[in-house]
Fold this sequence. Notes:
GO terms for molecular function: ubiquitin protein ligase activity; zinc ion binding. By secondary structure, the chain is α+β, with helices and mostly antiparallel strands.
Amino acid sequence: MKIFQVSFIFLVLVITWLEVSQDYECQPTRCGDSGPIIKFPFRLKDQQEHCGYLGFELSCTESNNTEFELQFLVTASTNNVVLPLFAKVWIWEIDYKAQLIYINNFTAKSCLPG
């Protein structure tokens, strides 16, 4: 009976530790002091995958700007070949309540599709 009690207490401690460590690694963060808060469903590329949705990965630039890489798929008409087009933009605000992202497309290395 004592072995069961000790095993049960150990199991509860391990589960609690896993939950706390998972919560800690997914804490809201930001790029620099004035950048937008990055939290679920977004995540930084160096955070664990379960901290955000696929395709919602952000990164910090050397100057502490929050960067997002947009991908557009374009179908070429000759052989229906799909070509990916990429553009990197800076995010200056994320409104989680309204579900809006405010971007600065002047940082894009190419023109954004219309």
